[in-house]
Amino acid sequence: MADKSDFDEFVVTRSSALLRTAYLLVQDEGRAEDLLQTALTKAWFAWQRIEDPEAYVRRIMVTTSASWWRRRWNRETPTDQPQERPMTAGLAEPANAQDLWVAIGHLPRGQRAVVVLRYLEDRTEADTAYLLGCSVGTVKSQCAKALAKLRTDDALASDVKEGSR
Amino acid sequence: MNGEDLKYLANRSEAVRGRADQRLAEVHARIRSARRRRAAGAVAATSAAVVAIVLGMAVLTGPTAPNRHDAPPPPAHSDAPAPGTTRKVVYSDDLRSRPLKTSAGDFVANIHVGVLHVGDREVEIDQKVQMVHGGWSIVVTDAGAVYAKVDHTVWVTDGRRPRQIAQQACADSSGDHSGLASGTAGTLLAWFDCSPATRGDLVVYDTALRREVARHPLPSCRSPGPGPNAGPYECVPDGVIGEHVYFGHITRAGRLVQHEFRLDVTSGQVVHAGEAVYADDLRTHPRALVVGDSWRAGTPSDSGDIVFHAVGSRLVPDKTGPTRVFDTATGQRVQLRLPAGYRPDPAAGFHRPGETLEGTDTFTPFEWLDDDTVVLAQGDINWVGDIITCHLSDGRCDLAVQEPSHNRHRIAPGLGLPG
Q1: Does residue B76 form part of some domain?
Q2: Cβ under 8 Å to B: A residues 120-149
Q3: What is the pLDDT of residues B24-37, one digit of tens each?
Q4: Domain annotation covers residue B98
Q5: Both B116 and B216 in a single domain?
Q6: Which of B2, B16, B26 is opposite residue A86, by nearest beta carbon?
Q7: For a FRET experiment, which of A46, A66, B62, B264 has its CA 20 to 30 Å from that of A37?
Q8: Residue B412 within a domain
Q9: Full domain range(s) for residue B111
Q10: Whether residues B180 and B224 fall in one domain
Q11: pLDDT tens, B284-327?
Q12: If you average pLDDT over every residue of chain B, what do you get?
């Protein structure tokens, strides 16, 4: 059980890591900050009954990002302008990375969450299932569907064609 | 998709910092706000139970006339896209202008706004404001201040270098109406498109997402504005509450009929609205004040319609009208007190030697920082002095920005320009 006096310390020490997960989930820095703060605020009210605060906050972020999308952002319109994103210092961008980033953004939120947790955060199926509040079987099936979608996504299709020449 | 791509994407997130330095404070502000809403909800639920018992007894004992003013307010709700974000105080002390000499006297005209203050940041916005009898064409969202230039471009700044977000909006700084609308909470912004091909489209832009989230063609809004001071447009957005964007039209006489229609951003539906609908919407969202005998019967406002007067250390609404004010977030009565030891400067504001200004003891709300904090400007219709922030929950006010020197003008969003 977490002590409420630990909350501030948790925010200071763990929020940078949590923000990275939020960013991968929503692909926008401003939205990621908002998602993280929303999750932390919700966590504060449950703080004294939380066994594992970090897992709890991650889970809230996953469910909240999905509910935001259902409630509001299903009216997103496609744009030719790629979203601005932070540059990773000292790391050359692989040729397909930007396309993959765009393609991940096209996934339904549930599948995107699975890809983020399983492949980008390198979590186990069991850990991913716990964070998503679903069974390992659901994680496996969502993973398979997500990968199938990514393989046929337009953003990656051109690379496949080019690569096949 | 290969391991190298995935590693890169995972590492990309390493560069994301967000608002690390403010995060803890912002989370606690959200917690306070949520606690107040929960408390209001609990009060409403308890009171509803009491009301149910009383009504049940009334059925048994005969008819009574319920006092609608006794009913507790329902908890206000917020469906703003970025709940709890703390805004920054926006104003400018950097006005460069030349007096315009006419047969009727000298007027301030062609104001050039240089440095804009966004919290403790300063940014050069280089905005020319041609007319001085309207408000300053700038609005505030959770993601920063937004302003239009005379060439119909629209810009946003959070204190850093401004970004252009629209090329040809029906918005500028030459008319009575700026053509931009935002809410006291959230990141939504609205304007009408003035591009030849899409003129009359009502555009809703999310300043945090940095993209349009709705576009609604309105053929009846395609005509140019009718009056010389109306600007080049027929329709004007004039309010954003949660996911609702309100707009009206300018009559042949040049008068703006406000809040005539409402676009629901989520459903994409446009419906007739009107002042009563707008008022009800205000009343059920945080970040508005209700002046009157009760939260339910009073008149809600989210802007400079309410003027507070300093009476001793208290701030009370217009001396000639109702003196009670309620917070729409909680339904609780608001009783604001000036900062301890603070006395409004009777010689505040830009003025020429020997000139006396009216309104040194009046304060007008012009911005909300969060659900509990409203920003008020000392001054009258044509000038702004001290800027204070007030907390609705405990009534405490603090001096946020000292008045500028007496030879400088200050302007704030939603308030009148000098002249």
Answers
A1: no
A2: 120-122, 147
A3: 888 888 887 777 66
A4: yes
A5: yes
A6: B16
A7: B264
A8: no
A9: 90-283
A10: yes
A11: 888 999 998 888 888 898 876 788 989 889 999 876 677 799 99
A12: 78
How many residue contacts between A and B have a Cβ separation below 8 Å?
132
* Beta-carbon separation of B1 and A77 below 8 A: no
Residue numbers in B near A29 (CB within 8 A)? 16, 18
* Amino acid making up residue B391: H
Are B16 and A23 a contacting pair at CB < 8 A? yes
Q: Which two tokens stand for residue B168?
A: 């040809």
Residues B232, B299, single domain; the answer is no
Same domain, B256 and B357: no
The predicted model scores a pTM of 0.58
Same domain, B101 and B51: no
* HSE toward the beta carbon, residue A23, CA cutoff 13 A: 26
- CA dist A162 and A18 (Å) reads 37
Is there a contact between B13 and A119 if contact means CB atoms under 8 Å apart? Answer: no
B212 close to A (CB below 8 A): yes
Counting the structural domains of chain B, the total is 3
With tokens 């419906």, the residue in question is B271
